[in-house]
Fold this sequence. Notes:
Helix content is 25%, strand content 34%. With 388 residues, the chain is α+β, with helices and mostly antiparallel strands.
Amino acid sequence: MNIFDQYLFDEIVESYIQPDLTFEDYEEIYQRFLNLEHIPEVKPYLLSMRFLGLGTEAEPEEVLSELRTHFDSGNVNLCGLYYDMILYKNRNDKEAAEKLSEFENEGYSDNYLKEHSHLNYEEVRDDEYDEEDDQDEYDYDDDGYKDDYELAERIKIKSMEFECRGFSGLYFTNRDVDYLNAKVYIESVKKPCHIKVRSQIFDGDYTFSKIFNNEYDLKPGDAWFRTTGWGNTNYNCYSDGVYKWVVEINGTQTYGQEFRMYNGKVDKTGPILTGVKLFASKATGALKADQENYKTNFDGRTLEHIYFKTFIEAPGSHMYVQVFVKVIYMEDDSVLYNNYCLQDLDKDTIACWNSIGYSSPGCWKKGLYKYTVRIGNSRSYEGNFTVY
């Protein structure tokens, strides 16, 4: 690392480790880390932010999968980070705790996951609740529930998103939201089991909602469940800002996901769409060098994400719009992607983008794809691209 890179790296790390950062703070820090992606020391920070959803979309399973590829590298920080993340998902994993302790002795620290690190577990957990107070709630032997409970302990939370009146994702406009639900994705259940779920919404360090208590009977093949909603019929429950929804399964697993509320309402019409161009870049974000390297043929050996750069007529006023993207794999007519992202446009915006793809290269199927892009209820734009 040269002197200039070292100076920038130290400056960004100092910003990252500060407490009480906002979602916008993390977005800026994430982009600054991306600009130093060529420095190996940056990788654990980028992976941590992707795992926790700090300034970017949460991709916990993809991050864990990527970290597993570094087991043979002997990198203390990457290996330690893996076990720290495992313990974030399941604090009772004794093997992971032993491994983390070994890497801590070799120099691994809590800098990456910050207050979520298992190295801070005792301090954080004491503030949340007394485990002994909850023990009796799940200790049933006579009716066979204990077997269900042991099965439920193996349930792995993969990710979370949120839903309300046709809107879904991690970004919302508050005047469109009455009641918001959390949809929790889990690894597909192999055996029937009964789980008890507690969840709550936080606004920074303060509780925002009451505690929701739900019970679910899961069947083989079930891969998600939905929590109780929170809000009101006046569409004024949520203010502009970042919230975090924390879910706990049977007192053994805790998982949290941030979501962003913007102050406003989606413009269903939106600006006039004038064209779409495609470029390839990293799953962690669009590199500046790639943003105008437009193409329709992509090398599958190096391809991670395809970015759909949507050109529009300047709106003339600030607005929030939904940009819908649908991608079909023409070789078998299967739908690869069909969703939208929320875009915040100012009055002079002439282009925006979103992307789809995989966290590592080599995952795209070779062949012809068809895509459709539209903004709100406007006329859609269609095109094709090839992965070879």
